[in-house]
Design brief:
It contains 1 helix and 9 strands, in the order αβββββββββ. By secondary structure, the chain is mainly beta.
């Protein structure tokens, strides 16, 4: 019995170690109305994938704002995602159909900003990954030569008459 318990303990500790080593890379943040602006920096060789962005309460709609580093001095930014409202209140809002949440992927280098909304709680789930060079033509990708073969006949066919045999009456 002691040997079985020891084997189970070893197997359980290996599973726990694997779970910790390969933990979920997604991060979640809650932004209350009295918090400061959430600012996430995405380096040039990374991308950020937002899978969930919801809002509970408030009258204004929360947005995910992206600023490219070259446009920061010009004030150039754009809103790439709006929050999905999860108000389960009664009244006029109960008449509305449920909203569908969208996902977005932001390529670096970029600065992602989420401003708090008065009277609302925001919830965001995201993951930053390293871009392993998918060969999409950006950065240091070099062009790949692809040979194109086209069949060119050596002899050009010319139309010829096809003999047709007419049946003779008996």
């Amino acid at each position: 019995m002691k040997m079985l318990a020891m084997r189970c303990l070893v197997a359980l500790s290996l599973l726990v170690a694997a779970a910790v080593a390969f933990a979920n890379p997604f991060k979640s943040k809650i932004i209350s109305s009295d918090d400061s602006v959430l600012e996430i920096t995405v380096p040039g060789d990374h991308f950020m994938k937002i899978t969930n962005f919801t809002q509970d309460g408030g009258t204004d709609r929360a947005v995910v704002e992206v600023v490219l580093p070259g446009d920061a001095e010009n004030g150039g930014s754009t809103n790439v995602l709006t929050a999905t409202r999860i108000d389960f209140s009664t009244g006029a809002n109960a008449q509305n159909a449920p909203e569908i949440g969208n996902r977005v992927t932001i390529a670096g280098p970029a600065i992602v900003k989420i401003r708090p909304i008065v009277g609302a709680k925001l919830f965001i789930t995201y993951k930053k990954d390293r871009d392993e060079g998918s060969g999409g033509g950006g950065g240091g990708a070099s062009p790949t030569v692809i040979p194109i073969f086209s069949p060119t006949p050596g002899v050009t066919p010319s139309p010829t008459a096809t003999p047709f045999i007419f049946p003779t009456p008996f």
